[in-house]
Amino acid sequence: MDAHTSASDTELVQLLTPEGRRVTDATYSPFVAGLTADDLRGFYRDMVVVRRFDNEATSLQRQGELALWVQSLGQEAAQIGSGRALAEQDFVFPAYREHGVALTRGVDLLELIHLFRGYRHGGWDPVAHNFHLYTLVIGSHTLHATGYAMGVQRDGRVGTGDPGRDMAVMAYFGDGATSQGDVNEALVFAAVNNAPLVLFCQNNQWAISEPTTRQTRVPLVRRGGGFGVPSVRVDGNDVLAVHAVTREALERARTGGGPTFIEAYTYRMGAHTTSDDPTRYRSHAEEDYWRQRDPIDRVRALLITEGLADEAFFAEVEAEADAMAEATRTYCRSLPEPPAVTMFDHVYAAPHPLVAEERAWFEEYERSFVTEGGH
Amino acid sequence: MAATRTPMAKAINMGLRRAMEADPKVLLMGEDIGALGGVFRVTDGLLKDFGPDRVVDTPLAESGIVGTAIGLALRGYRPVCEIQFDGFIFPAFDQITTQLAKLTYRSSGQLQMPVVIRVPFGGGIGAVEHHSESPEAYFAHTAGLRVVSPSNPADAYSMIQQAIASPDPVLFFEPKSRYWDKAEIDLDVPADTSPAAIETGLHRARIARAGTDLTIAAYGPTVTTALAAAEAAAQEGTSVEVVDLRSISPLDTDTLVESVMRTHRLVVAHEAPVFFGSGGEIAARVTERCFYVLEAPVLRVGGFHTPYPPANIEEEYLPTFDRLLDAVDRALAY
Question: Per the CB < 8 Å rule, is A144 touching B251?
Fold first, then answer.
């Protein structure tokens, strides 16, 4: 079964057709009614910039400058629409493909390069941006997000009625992750604790080579119901609809209404990572189908149809994206290699005699090459 | 205040209480730890005094317990998780070794993981399968974790407080067969939890009995067995020193080496299977530093390369008094 034919027997929330025309939804339209022309142009700008960054990083991997790259290509609406729904005080636990969300959290995208160049396991300050580090083991971080949300409850930061104080936690994961025990345990813990959590599943149709039919016999959105978690399925390539359902879920979380499960129905237009070859397992016809539903084309059509942007704006965004690509190349190549001895840093927070002993041995070993004139 | 005779289970209970009094961010999580007070009653009474936000009866899911504890730690809490029995820790193995152990490293020190995982471990209580295991070596093998095991009530009382104060994750292995062993402890005095005290109090070995002819290194439940064996050996004219390691990671090799330099012989005792167990690492480390003074190979006494056997025959599996004395005799015969 092709991924797009399995679309669903469950309705998708959609506020923007693939042609860029608005659709009215009694529940969700109010959540985007307040968006200004600036906001909509901002969505477009973010989506274009992060796609350009993503493409540049893919090129850098092909040129041998990055060890690996994980593409966000095609998921820009799901990431920007949801990320722009977050309040500053909200806290995000990404998986590892959420470059668009990183942008909305004020993370300098260049900081993502450290991880994929093989220089560090992290890169950015998770506390400064309320954006946790990427987690590569599938689904593990959904439990961290749940625990964090339980801490938020204990801190009295839920349901106070003060919009600057109440906070929510959002965890991003994919369709494959929904099969993991940890994700199901996160749903249990979040539900019984009524935790201020939004579980945001980007169903991009593919877990490397396995279609969602290998993970589930029902639309993923139905996973939430059995746990008692309100759930919604949204057109993940529709930035307005994603924004609306996420805002609704975050508001419920902040006001003490508990967790929500969102299935954002989207498509991984690129490979799983630069190590993957999708031609081995999916058809060009399927890729073409989704290319016609490109999330960036859709918001661009909206801006044009409603007269919210002119050619000068689009040219300005292109120039900004070009500058981002240039900055990415320069930054990547200018990064100093980490000294090998830094492998011993931060294994523990407090001193550990074995690490100290091995570090001392290693330093002595390295010095031996210097004195022998080897290196 | 006067010291009172206290069983280890109560000593840990009082240590938890002192830690919760000292720091409002300390909270307990686990299965049946609230109203029931834990299956071994180690958390008895704490729900009543600290409330359900700090003594949390969790869903029955070990990965969920440790995974949410990590999230709570990221939010500034100091969770103390109880894994009900040793053999139930494996659903949480991924969260412990892949996430808990590595988040400080992954974040280049920006994040800390002050999480304690309490594990009643070891055999000798006639339990059914999966309730008598000694999985400590799996965790000592993982950088980023600290692994300790008290052998007596006084250590249990202070070490649990220091483990909770540690900025790193600590696997706290409680010898369940010794839960009801009693000792005099002054329970009114909280432990010193300064960084220096944690380093010495939580991670240094202790010479539990001085001797001159042979050293037995033990931790957790085997320390009491080793002391009994040393007493019996003394009747036969052999002076056995007993080192209570207390900490497996980090391992206080210096104290052990200092002992073996004097006694020239070492026997290591633990309930865990000998093959690829902590005794092998201890033997290698001591041999590296004591090669020229050793009068016998380092001998290991522990579990066999079998699953933990049915309770009826567990006595023959465990490193008993008799098997320790046999090892002492073999070492002296070299």
Answer: no
Task: List, as one string, the DSSP characters of A1-48.
Answer: --GGGG--SSPPB-SB-TTS-B---TTTGGGTTT--HHHHHHHHHHHH
CA–CA separation, B145 vs B227, rounded Å? 29
pLDDT score recorded for residue A123:
86
Question: How many CB atoms are located within 10 Å of the residue B63 CB?
Answer: 23
Mutation to test the A interface, candidates B54, B104, B107, most A Cβ within 10 Å: B107
Q: How far apart are CA B59 and CA A154, in angstroms?
A: 18
Residue with tokens 């041998």: A64
* B131 given a catalytic annotation: yes
Question: Is B147 in contact with B220 (CB distance < 8 Å)?
Answer: no
Q: B112, A126: Cβ pair inside 8 Å?
A: no
Q: pTM (2 decimals)? A: 0.96
Check CB contact under 8 Å for B63 and A185: yes
Q: Are B305 and B114 in contact (CB under 8 A)?
A: no
Q: Percentage of residues in chain A with pLDDT exceeding 70?
A: 96
HEC string of A209-236 equals CEEHHHCCCCCHHHHCHHHCCCEEEEEC
pLDDT tens, position by position, A326-362: 999 999 999 999 999 999 999 999 999 999 999 999 9
Of A152, A186, A189, the CB nearest to B75: A152
Grouping H, G, I as helix, E, B as strand and the rest as coil, residue A317 is helix
Within 8 A of B278 by CB-CB distance, chain A residues are none
Residues from chain A contacting residue B66 (CB–CB below 8 Å): 143
CB of B161 within 8 A of CB of B202?
no
Mean per-residue pLDDT for A22-45? 97
B199/A147 Cβ within 8 A: no
Q: How many CB atoms lie within 10 A of CB B209?
A: 17
Chain A residues touching residue B94 (CB < 8 angstroms): 137, 140, 182
Mean pLDDT on A231-250: 98
Picking from A185, A350, A353, the nearest residue to B167 by CB comes out as A350
- Which residues on B lie below 8 Å from A259 (Cβ)? none
Q: Where are the alpha helices (DSSP H) in A276-352?
A: 284-291, 295-305, 311-334
Q: Which two tokens stand for residue A371?
A: 């004195």
Residue A6 pLDDT greater than 50, yes or no: no
Q: For residue A143, give the nearest of B67, B143, B168 by CB distance.
A: B67
The model's pLDDT over B184-202, given as tens digits with 9 standing for 90+, comes to: 999 999 999 999 999 999 9
